[in-house]
């Protein structure tokens, strides 16, 4: 157990010192915010959701007919 604890603490120290890890973490936060906004828009605005659904159905039926 002690070996695992020391290994984990050393990994966390390296992560704190690594500036590239911070940039990657920032990208993850930005991506999560974008996903949240997109989900909020598609949940509240049914016209966009309906248009996308109709478009996907039309494309699928066109490819099925080929």
Summary?
The chain crosses the membrane at residues 21-42. The protein is built from three helices and no strands.
Key terms for this structure?
mainly alpha, single chain, 66 residues, 3 helices
Itemize the secondary structure elements and their pairings:
Elements: H1 2-17, H2 19-44, H3 46-65
Question: Can you offer a commentary on this structure?
Answer:
With 66 residues, this protein is mostly helical. The chain has one domain (1-65). Helix content is 94%, strand content 0%. It has three helices and no strands. It has helices spanning 2-17, 19-44, 46-65. It comes from Bradyrhizobium ivorense.
- Secondary structure tally, helices: 3
Helix content: over 70%
Shape: elongated
Biggest sheet layout: none
Number of strands: 0
* SS strand fraction: under 5%
